[in-house]
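Handout, page 2. Input:
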Amino acid sequence: MKRTVSSKIPWLAAFAVGAAVVASPVLAADFGPVPTVKVDAKKAALGKRLFSDPRLSGDAAISCSTCHVPQKGFSDGLALAKAYPGSDGFRNTPTLINAAQKAAWFHDGRIGTNLNDVTRESITETYSMNMDMRLMQERIKQDPIYVKMFKDAGYGEPSNGSIRKAIPEYLKTLTSRGAPFDTGKMSDAAQRGFELFKGKAGCSECHSGPRFSDDAPHNIGVPENPEIWSNPARHITYVAFSMFMGIENYMNIRRDVGAHIRTHKSDGSDIGKFMTPTLRELTFTGPYMHNGVIKTLDDVVDFYNRGGGRDPNKDPRVKSLGLSKDERANLVAFLKSLSGDPLTGPEHVWKDKINVNYAAIENWLKQRN
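Output:
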């Protein structure tokens, strides 16, 4: 895929327009490793516990880690995400590894870099965790472990505002590490795949920078996942989302409009655009695409090799690549080299049991916050 890119993005500035030859070579240094972010340890530890606590959902049935499973690269291994009990999701669960460095969140890019806003939406929306933050705050206040952790973190008394700060602090700790691409231990096949990635396959024009994403929306013709429209529990979730986002004619739509919710272009030319996903930790985070319709990395490469899918809004620069069987295998080897050490140790996962049973309060009339 050849496209115009802004010189304001340093690692993309070398690319020319259309089918022109790349003006200067793309180097490994243009991509990674992912830089670490300064973290407040006590605030992050608090966020880590909150991330695994089901009391942050309305009926205390699910936590953030229900869908963002550490052992699955902080994704869930499902084509389409779970949702709050009584409904099901209509998009694939993205990884949270390196996500604190994203320029825009969710597959449609509807929220920018303010992780406080991301946390609030994820907790409060009816189709995610369906939590009233006033109730959440009172639940947390009843846990003596939280009372101490909030105080030690410098937040004082537990509050919903502090929760929206502590979870993002934890997310900052989820940084890729140990990938063969970063350690210089890529196989020969992966090295050949990297050359294809930068050259013939054209992948690096969108999958760029340390996270291998340009943080921009594109239409590559990903086919719809029929499960969204045939399963009432998923369809009703999409209807609720669409109504809230102001999508036109939402009751009759049978496709995910993607980034259209950001601009609502009258000609519909932005329908079907989705944010370029990171390529980090791919071996843990399949199935792929915004709706999970592509199962394996081999299938992903085949999809691009065919020139993507069919869509009236597909970027005309997405065309067949003409990669041989060996070239496709080399490209897959490179993609696998972008996965590193699992973030499943105690520094990233709350290992202690969270006791959600509260001691009975004998006399409510004498209680004060």
